[in-house]
Specification:
alpha+beta, 9-stranded mixed β-sheet, 4-stranded antiparallel β-sheet, 6 helices, 15 strands, 29% strand
Amino acid sequence: MERTFTYRIPKQDAGMTIYDYLKKNGYSHAVLVHLKKTKESILRNGIWDYMNTCLAAEDTLTVHLIEQDGSPNIVPAALPLEICYEDEDILVINKDKNTPIHPSMNHYDHTLANAVAHYYAVQGIPYTFRCANRLDRDTTGLTVLAKNLLSSAILNGQVSRRELHREYLAIVCGAVPESGVIDAPIARKEGSTIERVVSFEHGERAITHYRRLACKDGLSLVHLVLETGRTHQIRVHMKYIGHPLIGDFLYNPDFTKISRQALHSYRLTFHHPITGKPLVFTAPLPPDMLALFPDVLLP
């Protein structure tokens, strides 16, 4: 991937070094190190310059961000890929079920990363896989990928500051109360590397807001908003209040209604990492969840 950014230095930033100016504009340490290693990556008024050079008002600062290697350990694979949005900096995808985000020991060539690698390989574009909001293998819906080092650094900052807002839809057992807030800390279950539990003694704080959208045949369709991003947060919290997700192999392994955990990343709201423009994306219920609530009106 190659990306060029151009900045006209305002009066209030005159006297700042190039390094400090770029830090102010979201360039992480890793991005700055990469730029230092790249020939003619930073031009001040068209001339290659050093990071410690002081800027003057009305200077033109040009940054060439070049990545030539991509992710060498991710094998391109021609898999289905539903792209909701793409520009020079981000890629928003509606992920299908049974699709891990990235390769692992048992999932080497059939992940989202493999599909994205193929998408860019056929275009002859080297691509490094960087996912801002990771989803479990069986969770469907929206995820955003960064297309360059800078957009990745800024998106990761948004995630850490909880500025990337995620809303989910889930189908759970029983009639859930109309709405509520679950404030219960989550920890790794003793003796397990995967499973999590609510633990007021050892857990990290986790907060989930929920609202019932529909109730039918002993099931509820629930809209959920996360304040925190703990592993398996929705799945653990809904089980904790007595309404586990259907089809959840870890926390409620009942597959009579659906073959996977009924959880869908429905809406993402965040600011574009480069332009700062507010963005909102939604993805409709996938067919297996829609079959259980075909007439529901989504928020």
